[in-house]
Amino acid sequence: MEVTVAWYLTLGAVLFTLGAVGLLVRRNPLVMFMCVELMLNAVNLTFVSLGDALGDLSGQVSVFFVLVVAAAEVVVGLGIVVAIMRRRVGATADDLSVLRG
Amino acid sequence: MDAAVFTVCAVMVLSGAFGVLLARNPVHAALFLVQSVFGVAVLFLLLEATFLAAVQVIVYAGAIVILFLFVIMLLGVDRVDDLDVEPIAGQRPLAVVIGAGILGTTLTALLVAVGGPTGAPTANAPLGDAGDNAKRLGEVLFTDHVFAVELTALLLTVAVVGAVVLVRRLRGPLQPLPAEAVASKPESPESTGPDGEAGEAGQGGDA
């Protein structure tokens, strides 16, 4: 059986949905970050499969930049989490409502 | 053969994603994330993106998840989440509805509406075969996209400096969060006492 691009796109859509639902449901900021990583992975898979279907390298170039941005995002995000946890052990996303204006 | 590899990887990716979603312990969630990321890396190999498959394993499994685990271990936040408590009424059903909406719209946009991918490949970036994938990617990155590559270097530098600024020890006692937020969490009494924090900050200042 031939693996077509539609298979990859469907898998990417399902993976993105799981990441989005996790981001909405979980309250631990670290797990929320992991769900964001899942969503980025789903988009990467879509980029590479579409690039493969069209015979174009640009999809892989895009994934390269997404990887860099994901790494930078995790570094800054985890820095913020560390800074918050140092003041309040065990903070969840709900506790940070004090940030509202 | 391809279909078998795809099926195994898809099961691996999706079960890992469900694991991240449902794991009570953040350490378990991080390990499930590794499983999911490895599945995606094998799918990259199946799509002949050999360089990205290697980078996926090195950067995600080797760097990002390790960073997560470091933060979990250093902060001692590996407490088990109570998933039975639903803090906002109707949050989970609403999340499932939103998820179904996202899945429906993406699948419709990607597959049903246009019947598959459309568009034409660019003339200046054709896909090589798997053997010279890294070479082709490097050529394209350092000719057509060289300015963007330089910008990513700047971005990473800014991120590193930002992280250092965020987590450095401040001189003087740390300000606790407002009492309203602290009062809602009676099980963590040790966190923001001015004495302990001042001692810690003093040590940091001496060093």
Using only C-alpha atoms, the radius of gyration of chain B works out to: 23 Å
Give a quick account of the main beta sheet of chain B: strands, pairing sense, barrel closure. Answer: none
Based on Cα principal axes, name the global outline of chain A: elongated
Average pLDDT metric of chain A: 86
Distance between the termini of chain A: 56 Å
The low-confidence runs of chain B, each spanning 5 or more residues with pLDDT under 50, are 186-207
The global form of chain B is extended
Taken in chain order, the helices and strands of chain A follow as HHH
| Number of DSSP-assigned strands of chain A | 0
* Biggest interface found: A-B, 81 and 101 residues
What's the CATH class of chain A, please? Mainly Alpha
Helix content of chain B: 55-70%
Count of DSSP-assigned helices of chain B: 8
The topology string of helices and strands of chain B comes to HHHHHHHH
Q: Find the CATH topology of chain A.
A: Helix Hairpins
The main pleated sheet of chain A reads as: none
Structure notes:
The complex is a heterodimer of chains A (101) and B (207). With 101 residues, chain A is mainly α. Chain A has helices spanning 5-25, 29-54, 58-87. Helices cover 76% and strands 0% of the residues of chain A. The radius of gyration of chain A is 17 Å and the shape is elongated. The N and C termini of chain A lie far apart (56 Å). With 207 residues, chain B is mostly helical. Among the domains of chain B are: 1-81, Up-down Bundle (Four Helix Bundle (Hemerythrin (Met), subunit A)); 145-174 and 197-207, no CATH class. The longest helix of chain B is centred in the first third of the chain and has 26 residues, at 50-75. Chain B starts with a helix and ends with a helix. The chains are: A mainly alpha (101), B mainly alpha (207). The interface between A and B is large, with 81 and 101 residues.
